[in-house]
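Materials and Methods. Structural model of THUMP domain-containing protein. The 385-residue sequence of THUMP domain-containing protein from Christiangramia sediminicola was retrieved and submitted for structure prediction as follows.
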Amino acid sequence: MDNYRMIAKTLYGFESILAKELLDLGAMDIKEGNRMVSFVGDLGFMYKANLCLRTAIKILKPYESFRVNSEQELYDNIKKLPWEKFLAEDGSLAIDSAVHSDIFTHSQYVALKSKDAIVDRFREKFGKRPDVDLDFPDLRINIHIEKNFCNVSFDSSGDSLHKRGYRSATNIAPINEVLAAGMLLMSGWEGQCDFLDPMCGSGTIPIEAAMIACNIPPNLNRKEFAFEKWNDWDEELFEKIEESALKKVKDFHFKIKGYDKAPSAVMKAKENVKNANLSEFIEIEQKSFFETKKQNDKYLHMLFNPPYGERLEIDIEDFYGKIGDTLKQGYPGTHAWFIATNFDAIKSVGLRASRKIKLYNGPLEGRLLKYVLYQGSKKRSKQQD
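The predicted structure was written out as C-alpha cells:
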C-alpha cells in the first residue's frame, strides 16, 4: 500500500500532544505546525488516525497545491483538476475553506468559487453536475489559502472528530471532546489512580478520562467517517484496524467520578456515559463540589471546567474563591487541574498554580492551571515523593 503525507488538524496548544499520539500509533515523518501536525502513512493508517487520535479535529489528505493571485486563477486551477476520478457526476460534494490572505478575505466566497469551478467542469464534460450536500457528501473538499498559496485536500473525517458519537445530551456550556482529551493528556492522566471531575456537566471529561484509562479508541461510537464514501473505501481493512485497536483495550482498577449540583446535568451525564458503554467505570453523583471532601487518603487526579460567567450567571470572585477554599480544606493529596478563561477569577482562587498553560476554550483564551494540594505539610510530602 502506498504511503502519502496527511495533515491532522488540532486545537491551539495541542500540537505536541497530537505529535506524540501519532508517534505512538506508528506514523512516519511527523512535523508539527500551527494547529496541525503533518505525517506520512498509508490508507490503513488514515483509518487508524481517524479512529484512534484523541486530539485531532480532522484528517486531511492533500491533493494539489498551486499559487493564486486572483479569483480567476483560483477558479481556473480548481476547474482543471480531474475531479471525475473521485466523484460521479450524479454524486454530492461539500467544500470547507480557510483563508489567511490579502487577496482572498472571505472563506465562504472561496468555497463558492471553488464549487462553481468543479460543477462547471462536470457540466461541460457530462452535461450533469454533482449536488451540494453539507451533511454527508460523497466528497468533502478542504481549500486552504495562505497568502497566495492554495492547498486543496480531501477531508477523510467528515464531521469534526470531536463529535465522538456518545453525546446525545448536553448542558448549557458543554466542553469540546478534543479539548477535554487534550487537557487530560496534558495533565499526565493515564488511568494511574482515582479521578474526579467535580463540575462534570454532561459528563464529557469523565468519559474522555475513562477512554484514556482503558485505551478505548475515542471515535469507536461514531456513526460514519467521510472516507466511507470514497472510491477506495476498504471495509475489510477498516474492520481489521478496528479489531486490532480493540485488542489493545485495557482494564482499569480505580474509580472515575463526576459530580454536578444540577439534577438535569446529572441525568444527561448518566445518559452519555451509558451511550459510551462506560457505566462500569464512571459514577455520576448529584453533589455540590463546595460541600464535598476527598473520600480517602489515596492520591487523586482532578480535572474540571468550571463556569466562567459567559453563559452561566455566577459571582466570579465568590465562586472561584470557594473553589480554592474547597481544594485547600477538603482535598489533600490531590493534583487539581482546571481551565479558566476569566483572568480575574484565577486571582480569586487564593492558591499558587504550579503550572499555567495557554489554551483556548472555543474563541476564549484561557489557562489550564495545575494546583498541587499536599497531604500534610509541603515539606513532609516532598520527602515522601
